[in-house]
Amino acid sequence: MKCFSFSNGEKKDEPKDNPVESLRRTSFPSFSQRSSNLRVFTVSELKSVTRNFSRSVMIGEGGFGCVYKGVIKSAEDPSTKIEVAVKQLGKRGMQGHKEWVTEVNVLGVVEHPNLVKLVGYCAEDDERGIQRLLIYEYMPNRSVEHHLSTWAETPLSWAMRLKVA
């Protein structure tokens, strides 16, 4: 029985194109046929949006890393602005590149009114090292975790929790 795959140290020839697309083809074959409307951002664009990742615009922190609030121009109508949440993969985060790619692959093609919309992503290297960021539409009413937790001002009733589930 083969439970784990081991490498002999040789690297397979990997496509040199977009890291998200290459993983989508190999890890998520059902998603490879779907198109993604995700925007690709640069680190410099996201630094501008988040005031150079300032703590003054930080709205949260979790296993992935820090989350910052910002405003970007709409891709459809540049005169329209969209509030966004920018998740930055932390160097000491509990999640890594593989989880980042999974989020891009899944949320990049799945749309549902009860899911936060993934607007785009950033995958590049700069003076800070490897940068992996996710850009979501901003949720003004906080997270589901906040509303379900006992420390929320008015936690959701059990009936409402069942409806959410």
Helix/strand order: HEHEEEHEEHH
Count of DSSP-assigned helices: 5
How does the helix and strand content classify structurally? Answer: alpha+beta
Strand order of the largest sheet: 1-5-6-4-3-2
**Helical content band:** 10-25%
* Count of β-strands: 6
Q: What is the C-level CATH assignment? A: Alpha Beta
Largest sheet: 6 strands, mixed
The domain count comes to: 1
Poorly predicted runs of 5 or more residues = 1-16, 26-32
The name of the CATH topology is Phosphorylase Kinase, domain 1
Choose one word for the global shape.
globular
CATH architectural group: 2-Layer Sandwich
Beta-strand content bin: 25-35%
CATH superfamily: Phosphorylase Kinase, domain 1
Provide mean pLDDT, rounded: 77
Radius of gyration, in angstroms, nearest whole number? 18 Å
Span from first to last CA? Answer: 38 Å
Plain-language structure description:
This is non-specific serine/threonine protein kinase. ATP binds at residue 87. Residues 1-26 are annotated as: Disordered. Its EC number is 2.7.11.1. This protein is an alpha+beta fold and 165 residues long. The chain has a single domain, classed as Phosphorylase Kinase, domain 1. It has 5 helices and 6 strands. The chain is globular, with a radius of gyration of 18 Å.
